[in-house]
Specification:
This protein is mainly alpha-helical. It contains seven helices and no strands.
Length: about 70
């Protein structure tokens, strides 16, 4: 029996992958660096707010002076 190869030939064109349809749109997935950039000015610490006012915490030594007379 004669085998007709032409009838069993795979149509490569019909099974070819359409690369254009599966290509990833790199532009759509690109990260917009400008939107994620940290605004350093908004996160800057205002040192003046956190500065300790030493005058408030100064101990008034005169109020803690023991009255030695009561122990005499």
């Amino acid at each position: 029996m004669i085998h007709h190869d032409s009838s069993f030939t795979r149509g490569d064109s019909s099974f070819a992958r359409d690369d254009s349809s599966f290509a990833r749109g790199d532009s759509s997935f690109a990260r917009d660096d400008s939107s994620f950039a940290r605004d350093d000015s908004s996160f800057a610490r205002d040192d003046s707010i956190f500065t300790r006012d030493d005058s408030i915490f100064t101990r008034d030594d005169s109020s803690f002076t023991p009255d030695n007379s009561i122990f005499t």
